[in-house]
Amino acid sequence: MDLLLSGGHFYEGARWHDGHFWVSDLYAGHVLKITPGGHAQVAVELDDQPSGLGWLPDGTLLVVGMKSRSVWKCPAGEPPRLHADITALTGGFTNDMIVDRHGRAYVSNLGFDLFTGAPPATTTLVRVDPDGQSTIVADGLQFPNGLVISPDGNSLIVAETFGGRLSAFTIEDDGSLSGQRCWAQIGREPSWETPHSLLDTDFAPDGCAIDEEGCVWVADALNGRVARVAEGGEIRQQIKAPDGFGLYSCALGGPDGRTLILCTAPDFDDVKRKATREARLYSTKI
């Protein structure tokens, strides 16, 4: 793989849009727009911890603010403005996001404060409509994280990090979700008795991307790898991060649609990541 960009705190929310890769740097408080050749510019500065990214049909960027538990509308050349505050609908920091072709944003949240050792709790998935109205569309999820929509636009797939699985829902015409099902059980489901017990899994699904064949490329937050997973759980390909690095998010794009970028860092310890700039983006052809 090739080094695309270095010097970040912690890269997350990777996406491909309008000829560029995009990532949030959580602890720098900004969103980066990156050419396929690795030239980066700050596209958005947010007085928050940015994470999930998506775009409305008119091209307006939406950014998840983790600490404010909000979604921000970020028109080019203008300051961010609040699109939706979903604090009342979430159990913890908001996290990743996927926006469908109608401009409906589906937003995950952590459910509890993992970093302070709070008791584990399941949580919700929230839909934010183009007018900012917000609704809980799923509940009882085990640390919902990365989100993708199937190539036909009919299914939403969510990575349940501490469930060891990818779960799928049917997207109804009104944006509601139905038919929850296990799309792929790829890791051992931990016990959820204590914060430490959540780590008792062999695959912790994190940020993800989907290819034209409907396979999901999903980062394993505990084992420094990304895997290409088919429905049912077959792992068809794996790519390891460089030694000493974890791998937390990925995006598939590039001019030919076959470049995979990988968000890596030494770990996900928030104190260490805030203090240093060791995160790296890698790219590889698939």
Automatic annotation (TrEMBL):
| GO terms, molecular function | hydrolase activity
* Stretches assigned to the SMP-30/Gluconolactonase/LRE-like region domain: 12-265
Among its keywords, does the record have GTP-binding? Answer: no
Q: Which organism is it from?
A: Sphingobium baderi LL03
Tell me which SUPFAM superfamilies the record gives.
Answer: Calcium-dependent phosphotriesterase (SSF63829)
Membrane-crossing ranges are: none
**Top-level taxon in the UniProt lineage:** Bacteria
Q: What is the lineage of its organism?
A: Bacteria, Pseudomonadati, Pseudomonadota, Alphaproteobacteria, Sphingomonadales
Q: Which InterPro entries match?
A: 6-blade_b-propeller_TolB-like (IPR011042), SGL (IPR013658), SMP-30/CGR1_Lactonase (IPR051262)
Put simply, this protein is called SMP-30/Gluconolactonase/LRE-like region domain-containing protein
